[in-house]
Automatic annotation (TrEMBL):
Keywords: DNA-binding. Pfam families: Rrf2. It comes from Ferrovibrio xuzhouensis. PROSITE patterns: HTH_RRF2_2. InterPro entries: Tscrpt_reg_Rrf2, WH-like_DNA-bd_sf, WH_DNA-bd_sf. Transmembrane segments: none annotated. This is Rrf2 family transcriptional regulator. Gene3D superfamilies: Winged helix-like DNA-binding domain superfamily/Winged helix DNA-binding domain. The lineage of its organism: Bacteria, Pseudomonadati, Pseudomonadota, Alphaproteobacteria, Rhodospirillales.
Length: 147
């Protein structure tokens, strides 16, 4: 299983915001802290705002902050809403747009079960788990210039 850069940045943005409760953070600030693309992070922030994880406010005193407590944000939910697909293999023949072994293939079911197991594990964790206990928060804070 390989997550997209979009999901990676979404998780990073949420962690950054969780370490700054109640404070609005700008895209420029977060992009600078992680050394990542501002434009890509803007798309990620739009997705997270649309999905209800982040509250976004435009303007001079605007920025991003978590829309709910970190304990309420399940990692599985974030991944489901930021990934386009959980298909682990390409099942289509490009020429005919159908799988050539579809009638006898039994691979799809175990791969679907594996993807569900992966998401099930992530469902067991929240954003709070990524930013706690305090030692973890302090370490991340130092790395991101907030401690």
């Amino acid at each position: 299983m390989h997550l997209t850069l979009h999901t990676d940045y979404a998780l990073r943005l949420l962690m950054y915001l969780a370490l700054r409760p109640g404070r609005r953070c700008t895209i420029e600030e977060v992009a600078g802290a992680y050394g990542i693309s501002r434009n890509h992070l803007m798309k990620v922030a739009l997705t997270l705002a649309r999905e209800g994880f982040v509250d976004s406010l435009r303007g001079r005193s605007g920025g991003l902050r978590l829309a709910m407590a970190p304990q309420q944000i399940r990692l599985g939910a974030v991944v489901r809403r930021t990934e386009d697909s959980f298909d682990l293999v390409e099942c289509f023949d490009a020429a005919s747009n159908t799988c050539v072994i579809a009638p006898g293939c039994r691979l799809k079911q175990p791969l679907a079960a594996a993807a569900q197991a992966f998401l099930g594990v992530l469902d067991g964790y929240t954003l709070a788990d990524l930013t706690a206990p305090p030692a973890t928060a302090r370490t991340l804070g130092r790395l991101l210039g907030t401690a």
